[in-house]
TrEMBL record:
The chain crosses the membrane at residues 7-34, 40-59, 79-97, 103-126, 138-168, 180-198. This is Phosphatase PAP2 family protein. It comes from the Bacteria. Keywords: Membrane, Transmembrane, Transmembrane helix.
């Protein structure tokens, strides 16, 4: 059970969720009419900015013994990685803005950054779930696409799958003793609120 929980925690890591979200945005909205090569280029750049850079930063922090483990399970070790991740989200938003992406996609990144900064602040007292915040943000983006009529295909199957994966991920974090039930719920609510509000 723990092995499965670890797999879901890594596959649905907060540093990978922006890439998944941008992929969804580029394949289910009007943006799907852009050339395939251009879309894959944006997905790749999103991965570099919001995944590769934070992961390298975390590994460097681990190498220099600033943090005790790359998994960031210690509450007091999360501040620097959270801030780095939030800044990378903002950097990706700037990249998209300069690439003339629609403002709702730019603001998705801003919403993600806002959720990360809030998580960092709350983490002073309470270990709120960053995994939950990331999934909440992904779910909020899909609902925003639906509410604003941006989708060109039926997005409900993707929403249903995302809700299911959010539940599985939350359960995984609890099984691994990384978070309590309410820390997971608060994380999801945090991510959903900021992304839905700002996107």
């Amino acid at each position: 059970m723990n092995k499965i929980a670890h797999i879901f925690s890594w596959i649905l890591s907060p540093v990978l969720i922006p890439t998944y979200a941008v992929f969804v945005a580029l394949w289910v909205t009007l943006l799907s009419f852009l050339p395939v090569d251009a879309r894959w280029g944006v997905v790749a750049m999103t991965w570099v900015i919001t995944c590769a850079i934070p992961v390298v930063a975390i590994l460097l922090l681990y190498k220099f013994k600033v943090i005790s483990a790359p998994g960031l399970n210690q509450q007091k070790e999360r501040y620097i990685p959270y801030v780095v991740t939030a800044l990378c989200y903002l950097g990706c938003g700037l990249y998209m803005y300069r690439a003339h992406a629609p403002m709702w996609l730019v603001m998705f990144m801003v919403g993600g950054a806002a959720a990360a900064f809030v998580s960092c602040f709350i983490n002073i007292w309470w270990k709120i779930s960053a995994h939950g915040a990331a999934m909440g943000g992904l779910l909020a983006l899909m609902f925003r696409i639906l509410v604003d009529g941006l989708n060109v295909i039926d997005i409900w199957p993707l929403i249903s799958i995302t809700i299911l994966l959010t539940g599985i991920l939350g359960s995984a974090r609890i099984v691994l003793n990384c978070h309590t039930f309410w820390q997971v719920i608060a994380g999801v609510a945090n991510g959903f609120f900021w992304v839905f509000l700002l996107t």
